[in-house]
């Protein structure tokens, strides 16, 4: 019997390409976990204003966009785009994700895909040691930012899976 091989294959030989491949692997993993999810499951909230899978997906897209375009590249953040993802509904620091947007599940998933394409285009010529725009006395290398985004999305992956399980078991109590 042939062994199933597991690996993360970068598109190039740089640290950046490896970290981007890790981001893609993380996204692929939670998308596989959510395969077959219904629209109502995707937007369900255990608590009013709390997490829903859909709004967590949008939060991940916003975070990636902000870290790459606003910090790593030092570009002006397109607030119109950020607001289109429901930013005004959220107060993440206080655990408020707001009411899910009235968009189909496919729209939510397209946002993370589109942001990832922009991320790859934005960083392909940067070195891992590239330092983006700092805040205060803080500086962030591209390597740290990409690692942080892998870690961030993996954290939220767990939340999405937990929300799905809570949804499935909500009537059994």
Describe the structure.
The chain is mainly α and 173 residues long. The protein has a domain at 42-131 and 140-169. Helix content is 56%, strand content 0%. The protein is built from 6 helices and no strands. It has helices at residues 15-33, 39-43, 53-72, 79-84, 105-123, 142-169. Helix 1 (15-33) packs parallel to helix 6, helix 3 (53-72) runs parallel beside helix 5 and helix 3 (53-72) packs antiparallel against helix 6. The longest helix is centred in the last third of the chain and has 28 residues, at 142-169. The protein is globular, with a radius of gyration of 17 Å. The mean pLDDT is 91.
Brief digest:
The chain is an all-alpha fold. The protein has six helices and no strands. It has helices spanning 15-33, 39-43, 53-72, 79-84, 105-123, 142-169.
Key structural traits:
173 residues
Judging from the principal axes of the Cα atoms, what is the shape?
A: globular
Largest beta sheet, briefly? none
Low-confidence stretches: none
Quaternary status: single chain
What structural class do you assign from the helix and strand content?
A: mainly alpha
Q: Give the end-to-end Cα distance, rounded to a whole number of Å.
A: 44 Å
- Specify the helix fraction band: 55-70%
> What is the string of SSEs from the N terminus onward?
HHHHHH
Number of helices: 6
Radius of gyration: 17 Å
Total strands: the figure is 0
Q: Whole-number average pLDDT?
A: 91
Strand content: under 5%
């Amino acid at each position: 019997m042939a062994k199933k091989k597991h690996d993360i294959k970068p598109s190039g030989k740089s640290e950046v390409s490896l970290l981007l491949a890790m981001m893609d692997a993380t996204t692929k993993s939670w998308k596989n976990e959510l395969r077959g999810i219904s629209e109502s499951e995707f937007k369900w909230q255990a608590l009013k204003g709390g997490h829903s899978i859909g709004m967590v997906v949008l939060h991940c897209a916003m975070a990636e966009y902000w870290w790459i375009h606003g910090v790593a590249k030092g570009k002006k953040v397109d607030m119109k785009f950020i607001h289109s993802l429901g930013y005004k509904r959220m107060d993440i620091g206080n655990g408020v994700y707001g009411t899910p947007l009235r968009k189909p599940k496919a729209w939510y998933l397209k946002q993370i895909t589109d942001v990832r394409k922009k991320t790859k285009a934005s960083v392909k010529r940067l070195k891992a040691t590239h330092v983006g725009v700092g805040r205060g006395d803080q500086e962030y290398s591209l390597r740290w930012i990409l690692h942080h985004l892998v870690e961030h999305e993996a954290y939220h992956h767990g939340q999405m899976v937990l929300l799905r399980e809570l949804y499935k078991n909500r009537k059994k109590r």
